Structure formats: structure tokens, C-alpha cells
Automatic annotation (TrEMBL):
This is TonB-dependent receptor. One of its GO terms (molecular function) is signaling receptor activity. Belongs to the TonB-dependent receptor family. The lineage of its organism: Bacteria, Pseudomonadati, Pseudomonadota, Gammaproteobacteria, Lysobacterales. It is found in: Cell outer membrane. InterPro entries: Beta-barrel_TonB, Beta-barrel_TonB_sf, Plug_dom, Plug_dom_sf, TAT_signal, TonB-dep_rcpt-like, TonB_sidphr_rcpt. Keywords: Cell outer membrane, Ion transport, Iron, Iron transport, Membrane, Receptor, Signal, TonB box, Transmembrane, Transmembrane beta strand, Transport. It comes from the Bacteria. Residues 230-667 form the TonB-dependent receptor-like beta-barrel domain. Residues 56-156 form the TonB-dependent receptor plug domain. CDD domains: ligand_gated_channel. Residues 1-27 form the signal peptide. It is a multi-pass membrane protein. Its main location: membrane.
């Protein structure tokens, strides 16, 4: 590790520890909650962990809530960037990558949800979530199949969209300008639509014309999301619709390790902006329509119904050329001078249709001294994909003077149709005693079926459980313990026709939540996660894959959020994770760190407002985030990617109804990789990004 980075890590960790402890006296002086004019930091409730509106201090599992005002202050442009300051989350796990919002939680993969319904299914290069259309993002860490069915071991990232509010018509319009030729117009308008005050509407829109760090790659988008809500005496209905069209390409060019991290002495590293594709071939064009209906009805004060359903239709054309660094990672060049690489062509056109629904009855009742919140529901997912792949060949390229010699497209080949369905029945009881102790118990039964055209269908059944206990012991302290499980069907069969078993996850967690005042929340947690049935190579047959792999992830997390009456906001987080391979047919990796997974993460964000006069206000903010080193181990050898520390900044001026903000992420424009792999490629990190926004509120 470079000396400069090594020296910064303890300083940032010390700053976080100080930040978490120092505000206590000030919090005691200002016990009353205060909503700041420009930013809301300390969330008190979340729905992702329990599917009910539950205070965080009554939720026996670690969960982070990032409000829109907070991630806007930090300059987030996409979903993964909203999580850069959340404990245990490697937000930019694959650096600057337009293909998906790739993040890891506690070293493992999460599943993305939108409004409580699943949005991502494996790797599908569908248009990424527009953050201007979000109210907040919730991260539930660890296995969570009891409420959500088939899901990865890392947890749930649940983005919540903006919805109509029952107030006077109003909103904002704004213009963004930034480096890489960023030009964006955005608007958010809504309010009550009738005299009775029972119908409200909202329209959120974005139009963007922009480039990216990577040469020849655009970042263009059209997004419009109208919504309407109706509220009655006991019923509420909200319909959310959206249309999104993205025109971009793969920002990751899979630059060879031999010309970046391990470039030989006397030869410069490739610039992260290097484009090794073909401007006439490379593209990632995606179009997504979706419509959702959210309904709730209270039969009486004790029984209520909640139902949600969404239909999504997405079409994508993804084409890219990438260098062949994999045949010989240490020396991938095909010429004597070490300049020219062969290239491979990849292309896929998925046509995706997804139907998702979730219906539950909620019972609120008491048995003696115990208050129960019982939830019983059924959810259903139906994912269908028709796709075709490209048959193309590409010419080699001089990576130090990249000019594409072209690509020959021979045609497109239809791929087998895929269909995955899942139906699950779940029950959960939140038992509250003496307004101090909460016990959460849950169980679920799932039936999942996958069908690939031309192959036998595969059916998986699973039962998962969860249990958690949290109690208020006074002075704002609420210690908790919990256990949760997950399962994820693995489609396909081994070489001998045996269906793969679902991957399974188990988590044990303990911690404490401390909320001495409503404007302050600190969470400390320790955990152990075991993931089994991981696919590994068959040592007896290189053409076969077996399931003997196991991963264990354990660690500690500390996260704090503070908001004070003198217009000071602060968040801090620290995580130490040890994710390692405990079983594998590849003997070299047993007992080793999980590839591409940092062991340490820390962050600190501080923002302060200053009243200039009656009509003008200044806000400034600065943040630092540290991501530890990663390693990659395989038959090609061992590679370690250095850690990095990045700084973000905010300056904002409000004058009456006008707001002018300047966001800078990666202030020093540090070049880094996240990560490099022994396969032979490196993932470039995010460069300095400068964004100026002028908004008018009405």
C-alpha cells in the first residue's frame, strides 16, 4: 500500500470515531427534532426490513436510509453513488460502469428493488434507475428471503420513488451543467388536483445530453414519471408510471492489467479515458416502460389490506468490443513491441417483460400485555426474456494509439427464451411489550420455477426463517440480536444433467442502536454470514461445474447520522469485513479473501449552513471516503489493487426561490482502479466530476 494512502486511513478512521462521539453534548442541548431547510439527514422509520412502517429503533437488523436531499448534496448521479457513505456498502464495486448499478453489501451481492418490488434479475443491461425520481434509498444488510423470496446473500437495496403529495401545486425546475459536456434539464411538479383534496398528481422528468470519462461514450437520457394518487376515507390508491430511454455504451473498457496497474517500467499507464471499442459498433441503448399500482384499505382499526403490482417492459441493445487480456493476462500483446491486442465482440438484445405483485393482510391486535402487528401475504414474480446474440469479428487495436479498424457483423442468433416464476407465502409477527421490547418472527415458503427453451424445467422449493429481538434499555440505547436466511435458485444443470441446488445464506447479527434525540442515530453491529452451494470448477472435469463452494463473511459496522439546530449535518460510517472462501475445489483460494472485496470502508460527511441575510443562505459540505485494497487470486496468479481515499465537496447558495449548487466528487481527480483482476483486466475508477445546478422553486 502506498505510504500516502496508508497514512490517510488511520486519520479518516480517527475522524469518524471522533465524529460519532463528539456531538453528544450538543445533541443533549438540542433534544427537539428540527427539519433543516435544505437537507433531511436522520430518518426515523423504514419499510424495507419489515414491509411495515416501523421505527428503526424497533427493527432488529442493520438498515441504512439515505434521503434524496442527502445524496443530492453528495453529488450522486446514479443509484450506486447514493450509497457511497453507507456502512458496509462498496458502492462503486466495479468503478465507472454504465452496464449496471453494481454494489456489494458486506462483501456479497445484493438484489435491487424499486418500491418494494424486485427490479433486477441477474445480469441484464437494462436502463439504470434515475435518482432524480427517488425520495430515498434503503439498504437492508444481510439475507432477507423471508419477506422477499429468492434473493442474494448481501441483502436488499430498495429505492423508493417520488409520489404525489396533497398540498398546493408546486415544484421545481432546474438546469445542470458539468464536465464531460453534461447538460441536463430536470423538473418535479405536483400537488392537489381537485377542490375536495382527494386527488393529487406529480410529474418528474429529466432530459440529459452528456459524455463520460471514456472517450466516445455518451450518457444521454430521457425520463418522465407521471403519477396520481387518490385517497378516500379508508382507502388509498397510487398509480406510478415511467418511461426511460438511455443511449450510452460500456464505460468500462476492461483495460489490460499489463498496461495499467502492472505496466512495465518506462511505459506509461493507459489513461482511464482510453476507448478500445469501435464508435460505430459500441452501444448500450435501452428503453423501459413501467406502470405500478399501490393500494391499501383499512377494514377497521385492526385489519388492513395492502397490495402492489408492477408491469415492466424493457428492450436493450448492448454491443461492445473488448480487448483480449484473458488468453495471456501477463502478456496479452500479439506484437513484438507490446502495443497491439486482439479484440472480442459481444452483443445481446434482451427483450424483458416482468410482472411483480405483493398482497398482504395486516392485523393489529393485543393479547394481554403484548401488542401484535401480524403480516400475512403472498407475492409473485414472472420474468420473461427473449434475446439474441451477435455473431461478429473485430480487428486488433493499438492500445496506445487506438483507432478501430472496424468490426464485421455476420448477423444475430436467436437465443433460447427464458422464463422464471416465483410464488411465495410469508407470515411475520412483530410483538411489542411494554413499549420497550420488540420481537420479530417470520417464516416463508417459496416455489420457484425456471424454464429455458429446449431444456427441462427446473423447480426449487425453499422454506426460510427469521427472528429478531430488540429492546429499549434506557438513555436511547436499544441492543438487538437477529437471525435471517436467504435462498437463490441457480438455473441450469451440470454436465451429467443434475440440476443445481439453490444458493443458501444464513446470517447471525447483534448490535445496538442509540438514539438519545430524534436528530441523532448511531448503529453498531457485528455479523456472520455463511453462503453455501456456491458454484466451483469440477477438479475431475474442466468442462463441468459443481456446487461445493462456501463463503463466510463476518465483520463489524458503525454508522451515525446527526442533524443539529445550528444547521450542521454530519454522517459517519466505518466497516471492517472479512469475507473469505471456506470451501472450494480450487484449493488455492480456500482460506483466502474473497476476490475483489475490500476489507475496510470508512466515510465522513459534514455540511454547514450560514444565513447571509433574510433572503440568502450559504451551505458548504465536504466528505471523505476510504475504500480498502482488494485482491484477486486465480490460476493466473495474484493481484492486489491498492486502496484509495476520495474527497467530495458541495457549495450551495439559496436566494429566495433560487438555488445554485456546485458539486464536485473526487475533488483531487485521483486515478485509481476498482478493482484489477488476475483474469487480466482493470476497472477504472470514477474521475473528478463537476456539476453545477440552478433550480427555481415555486
Amino acid at each position: 500500500m502506498p505510504a500516502s494512502l496508508q497514512s490517510r486511513r488511520p486519520l479518516l478512521a480517527l475522524a469518524i470515531a471522533t465524529a460519532l462521539a463528539a456531538p453528544l453534548a450538543q445533541a443533549q442541548d438540542s433534544p427537539e427534532a428540527r427539519t433543516l431547510d435544505a437537507v433531511s439527514v436522520v430518518a426515523e422509520r423504514a419499510s424495507t426490513a419489515t414491509k411495515t412502517d416501523t421505527p428503526l429503533t424497533q427493527t432488529p437488523q442493520a438498515i441504512s436510509v439515505v434521503t434524496s436531499s442527502l445524496f443530492t448534496d453528495r453529488g450522486a448521479h446514479n443509484l450506486q453513488e447514493t450509497l457511497r457513505y453507507s456502512a458496509g456498502v462498496t458502492a462503486d464495486a466495479w468503478g465507472l460502469d454504465t452496464r449496471s448499478d453494481g454494489s456489494t453489501v458486506r462483501g456479497l451481492d445484493p438484489v435491487q428493488y424499486l418500491d418494494g418490488m424486485r427490479r433486477s434479475y441477474g445480469f441484464s443491461p437494462m436502463a439504470r434507475t434515475e435518482v432524480y425520481g427517488l425520495e430515498r434509498v434503503e439498504v437492508l444488510r444481510g439475507p432477507s428471503s423471508v419477506l422477499y423470496g429468492a434473493g442474494a446473500t448481501g441483502g436488499i437495496i430498495n429505492a423508493m420513488t417520488k409520489r404525489p403529495t396533497f398540498g398546493d401545486i408546486g415544484g421545481e425546475v432546474g438546469v445542470q451543467l458539468g464536465n464531460f459536456d453534461r447538460k441536463q434539464f430536470q423538473g418535479d411538479v405536483g400537488g392537489v388536483l381537485n377542490d375536495a383534496g382527494t386527488v393529487a398528481g406529480r410529474v418528474v422528468g429529466v432530459v440529459r445530453d452528456a459524455g463520460m470519462q471514456t472517450d466516445f461514450v455518451d450518457d444521454d437520457r430521457i425520463y418522465i414519471a407521471p403519477s396520481i394518487s387518490w385517497r378516500g376515507e379508508r382507502s388509498n390508491l397510487t398509480v406510478l408510471a415511467s418511461y426511460q430511454r438511455d443511449q450510452t455504451a460500456s464505460s468500462q473498457q476492461f483495460l489490460p492489467v499489463a498496461a495499467t496497474l502492472n505496466a512495465p517500467v518506462g511505459r506509461p499507464r493507459l489513461d482511464p479515458s482510453t476507448f478500445l471499442g469501435d464508435p460505430d459498433f459500441d452501444k448500450l441503448d435501452s428503453r423501459v416502460y413501467s406502470v405500478s399500482a399501490l393500494f391499501d384499505h383499512a377494514f377497521n382499526d385492526s385489519i388492513s389490506l395492502r397490495a402492489s403490482v408492477r408491469y415492466l417492459d424493457g428492450k436493450t441493445t448492448f454491443q461492445e468490443l473488448f480487448p483480449d487480456s484473458y488468453s495471456n493476462p501477463t502478456n496479452p500483446f500479439i506484437d513484438a513491441d507490446g502495443r497491439v491486442l486482439a479484440r472480442n465482440a459481444y452483443g445481446i438484445k434482451p427483450d424483458v417483460r416482468v410482472l411483480t405483485s405483493d398482497t398482504a393482510l395486516q392485523f393489529d391486535f393485543a393479547t394481554g400485555a403484548f401488542q401484535h402487528l401480524l403480516l400475512a401475504g403472498v407475492d409473485y414474480n414472472d420474468y420473461r426474456e427473449e434475446s439474441s446474440s451477435v455473431d461478429a469479428t473485430a480487428t486488433p487495436i493499438d492500445i496506445y494509439a487506438p483507432v478501430s479498424g472496424g468490426v464485421i457483423v455476420n448477423g444475430w442468433n436467436r437465443l433460447p427464451t427464458q422464463r422464471n416464476t416465483q410464488i411465495g407465502v410469508y407470515v411475520q409477527n412483530q410483538i411489542r411489550w411494554a413499549e420497550r421490547v420488540s420481537l420479530v418472527l417470520g417464516a416463508r415458503r417459496d416455489h420457484a420455477r425456471s424454464k429455458t427453451e429446449g431444456l427441462p424445467s427446473q423447480t426449487d422449493n425453499a422454506t426460510t426463517y427469521r427472528a429478531g429481538l430488540i429492546g429499549d434499555i434506557g438513555a436511547g440505547f436499544s441492543p438487538y440480536i437477529s437471525y435471517s436466511e436467504s435462498f437463490l435458485p441457480v438455473t441450469g444443470q451440470d454436465l451429467y444433467g443434475r440440476a443445481f441446488k439453490p444458493m443458501q445464506g444464513r446470517q447471525s447479527e447483534a448490535g445496538v442502536k442509540w438514539q438519545p434525540a430524534r436528530n441523532m442515530l448511531v448503529t453498531a453491529s457485528v455479523y456472520r454470514i455463511t453462503e453455501t452451494n456456491r458454484q466451483t470448477n469440477d477438479p475431475d472435469n474442466v468442462l463441468n461445474v459443481v456446487q461445493t463452494g462456501e463463503i463466510e463473511s463476518k465483520g463489524v459496522e458503525l454508522e451515525g447520522q446527526f442533524s443539529f439546530a445550528n444547521d450542521l449535518t454530519l454522517t459517519a460510517a466505518y466497516a471492517r469485513n472479512k469475507a473469505e472462501v471456506t470451501k472450494s475445489n480450487f484449493a488455492m483460494e480456500v482460506g483466502q479473501r474473497l476476490n475483489d472485496t475490500p476489507q475496510e470502508l470508512s466515510s465522513l460527511w459534514v455540511a454547514k449552513g450560514f444565513q447571509l441575510d433574510d433572503d440568502a443562505r450559504l451551505r458548504v459540505g465536504v466528505g471523505g471516503r476510504y475504500v480498502g485494497n482488494t485482491q484477486s487470486l486465480g490460476y493466473g496468479g495474484f493481484i492486489r489493487t491498492p486502496s484509495y481515499t476520495l474527497v467530495d465537496a458541495l457549495m450551495e447558495v439559496q436566494v429566495t426561490d433560487w438555488t445554485m449548487a456546485l458539486n464536485i466528487t473526487n475533488l483531487s481527480n485521483k486515478q485509481y482502479f476498482a478493482p484489477c483482476r488476475n483474469f487480466g483486466d482493470c476497472f477504472s475508477g470514477n474521475p473528478r466530476t463537476v456539476t453545477g445546478t440552478i433550480s427555481y422553486r415555486f
